[in-house]
Amino acid sequence: MTNEIFLRGLACASFLGVASAYADNRPNIIYIFTDQQTARAMSCAGNTDVNTPNLDRLAAAGIMFENAYCTAPLSGPSRAAMFTGHYPGEVDMLVNGAPMPDSLRTRTLGSLVQAAGYDCAYGGKWHLPSLDVPDGKFGFTQIYPHSDDGLAEACVDYLKRKHERPFFLVASFDNPHNICEFARSQNLPYGNVDVPDLRDCPGLPANFAKNPYDADVIEMERAANFNVYPSIRWTPEDWRHYRYAYYRLVEKVDREIGRIVDAIDAEGLWENTVVIFSSDHGDGVGAHQWNQKSALYEEVVNVPLIVTLPGRKHAGTVMPQLISNGVDLFATVCDWTGAERPGDTTGISFRQLVEEANPQASHQECVITETRFDGGKTRGWMVRTERYKYVLYDRGRYREQLFDMQADRGETRNLMMERAYEEIARRHRDLLAKFMEDHRVRPTRATVHDVPDKALKR
């Protein structure tokens, strides 16, 4: 009996030694994300109206994706996708303030990564649904509450500590979300932005005018919710002031992110750390005369995504593949950390894609974004394929939109109004109908399918 106990103990010690070695070889993960930053709001993305030297540093050291999309263009739902691995519509988290289902509370991304042997820390905005992540819940130690003032310093302090295990650090900044208060002529939570002479403000975007066949439900939502969309009577001058303030808020959060990047340098963490930067959703920034989120315009749903690998491998690469920064992020972090990913999540890991860094590699046929308007009831879906983007809203005139993203990234010509694109539209309808079936999307009317020409399965 004594020998049996001894052998079991030896086997256990051997297993723990292997597990420890495996854990030591796994990379640290630092996930930095902002709130309401559109993909083009970085100077490394070619935007001359904003200067983001620290995001540029990350892009120069890593891999930047041009076609990353939020899973939902609203803070709570987008974060739900990131930290549960589920599309928010299938788990009833499609609006801000929706509670996380009990069935998911113990298998969030933090819980799974913690169970895999990582030290998990979270600083900043949580919003699922509380603004602060509860300390010790969802797998995370809270190192700082919801505030951009002091968040970077808390993250730097965490990075300076001696870590016995690999770590997963999340730094969740609020800006440039303060543009919401700016639009309402309110004080900004982290300091106001002085607007200069109009001649020093950015010009209007090339797609400032709405296309003649834009979905009319968007204007209905704007008219019904002045608190969210005070821009309904804005002049071109107002929009230029808005764009100036938005880019200054991006620069403000870039400076905070720079403190964390400096700490990664100072602590020598590049050799065994994956650094991911993204945002929960974008902002209209005046395109189609739209501010805020919810609508499925490109400026709202296309988000930044930069991944820096250990050793800064493949530095400076730009990738065109389609990524969902919600459900795919969940799958990817599980992949890198060895966390046991729940079988009912459907995101696709982009780990292999970035480690090979082949811009020509195939990845996935499409990504889906779903929305319910903030403060409203309109629902909508986007299907983005390699060349085209199909948008469907659940009501209103011109509720179907189709754009050629190679020729018309500004979404000025709705191809649903041209017979030559019927087959392309049909293919995208099929993709959306399959998504709805696979993810148990409830129709907005119990007996009618939301996708044109489709029937509900009984």
Task: Give a short overview.
The chain has 458 residues and is of the alpha/beta class.
Account of the 3D structure:
The protein has helices spanning 2-25, 53-61, 75-84, 109-115, 151-160, 179-183, 216-224, 236-266, 298-301, 327-337, 351-356, 422-438, and strands at residues 28-34, 63-69, 119-124, 141-144, 167-172, 273-279, 302-308, 317-324, 366-372, 379-385, 388-393, 400-404. By secondary structure, it is of the alpha/beta class. Strand 11 and strand 12 form a beta hairpin. Helix 2 packs across helix 8 (236-266), helix 3 (75-84) packs parallel to helix 10 and helix 5 packs parallel to helix 8 (236-266). The longest helix is centred in the middle third of the chain and has 31 residues, at 236-266. The radius of gyration is 22 Å and the shape is globular.
Set out the fold topology.
Layout: H1 2-25, E1 28-34, H2 53-61, E2 63-69, H3 75-84, H4 109-115, E3 119-124, E4 141-144, H5 151-160, E5 167-172, H6 179-183, H7 216-224, H8 236-266, E6 273-279, H9 298-301, E7 302-308, E8 317-324, H10 327-337, H11 351-356, E9 366-372, E10 379-385, E11 388-393, E12 400-404, H12 422-438
Parallel strand pairs: 1-5, 1-6, 2-8, 3-4, 3-5
Antiparallel strand pairs: 2-7, 6-7, 9-10, 10-11, 11-12
Features:
458 residues; four-stranded antiparallel beta sheet; disordered N terminus; eight-stranded mixed beta sheet; globular
